[in-house]
Specification:
The protein is of the alpha/beta class. The protein has ten helices and 18 strands. The chain folds into two domains: 250 residues, 4-Layer Sandwich (Metallo-beta-lactamase, Chain A), CATH 3.60.15; 41 residues, no CATH class. It has a seven-stranded mixed sheet. The chain has a seven-stranded mixed sheet with strand order 7-8-9-14-15-16-17. The chain has a two-stranded antiparallel sheet with strand order 10-13. The termini are close together.
């Protein structure tokens, strides 16, 4: 069964603290290691998590504020010095191509193949036979996106049934997996009788934004919603001023999207010693809530 492993490499807000680094979330599954945002200090966080930077296959940037991207120059330099030979696919909102060009000019001779994918409209931005990633436009005073990662439903063969029918290892098995009935030794074999479905999985990441319906739609039926809650509900006016979510906002997105679990991140330094306030407020609306800590790992 395919699983998604998530490591919270940074869970802080604009100013890092002793306990919380700038934002970064690594999603690993199949042959992919996808980094969502790359705040300052990300390379050390990868070291602490015992993850080699060269394993990263793609980077998705939610927006171009410093606490979400200042780790990129150093990461690029390390990859170049480590003879990173893959194409590094980097995705982000409008303006991404220009910002990457500026970083490359700053670093001068950065010898890695960076393939930039600038996302100009919401919808599916990457799709393979195994997974797809959708983007939704957020509201944060600058071009900003949220992302949902979906592992696709899989059809598996029932090995005992295949063995009993003495079906050979041939294209017939592929037909059955695609839901097509076959004829074997003069008998019709229905695909439904010899296959079963493994449900897909969905993780949605909603970072810096004010509350909006697009976030709810993007997160619909998520197995896991990761959402920022920079502010306590008691500081709702500040949240609106800076276009961020409160703990209640994050919980309401989880509830209205019918997500199964909520993990809150991107916590302001003002709650460094009282993060339980954020979690407690959210749980009043959405019970299955947890506040993330740096280097937390979750598998779904």
């Amino acid at each position: 069964m395919d699983k998604i492993s998530l490591v919270f490499l940074g869970t802080g807000n604009a100013i890092p603290t002793e306990k919380r680094n700038h934002t970064g979330i690594l999603a690993s599954f199949a042959q992919e290691n996808i980094l969502f945002d790359c705040g300052e200090g990300m390379q050390r966080q990868l070291r602490f998590a015992k993850i080699s930077p060269t394993k990263i296959t793609r980077i998705f940037i939610t927006h171009w504020h410093g606490d979400h991207m200042l780790g990129l120059p150093g990461l690029f330099q390390t990859l170049a010095m480590s003879n990173y030979s893959k194409a590094l696919h980097l995705y982000g909102p409008k303006g991404t191509r220009r910002f990457i060009q500026l970083i490359q000019e700053l670093l001068m001779h950065i010898n890695i193949n960076i393939q930039v994918h600038e996302i100009s409209s919401p919808g599916t931005v990457l799709e393979t036979s195994q997974f797809k990633i959708n983007a939704g436009e957020m509201s944060h005073g600058t071009a900003a996106l949220a992302y949902s990662l979906e592992l696709k439903e899989k059809v598996h063969l029932k090995k005992p049934a295949i063995k009993k029918l003495k079906l050979p290892n041939s294209p017939l098995l592929g037909d059955l997996q695609r839901g097509k009935d076959i004829i074997w030794k003069g008998k019709k074999i229905k695909a439904k009788a010899v296959t079963y479905k493994e449900p897909g999985k969905k993780v949605t990441i909603v970072l810096d934004t004010s509350f909006n319906q697009e976030a709810i739609q993007l997160a619909e039926d998520s197995d896991l919603l990761i959402a920022e809650a920079t502010f306590s509900s008691q500081d709702a006016e500040k949240a609106r001023e800076y276009q961020h979510l409160t703990s209640s906002d994050a919980a309401n997105i989880a509830k209205k999207s019918k997500s199964k679990k909520l993990i809150i991140t991107h916590i302001s330094q003002r709650y460094e010693h009282i993060p339980h306030i954020i979690e407690k407020e959210a749980k009043k609306i959405f019970k299955n809530t947890k506040i993330a800590k740096d280097l937390d790992k979750i598998i779904i």
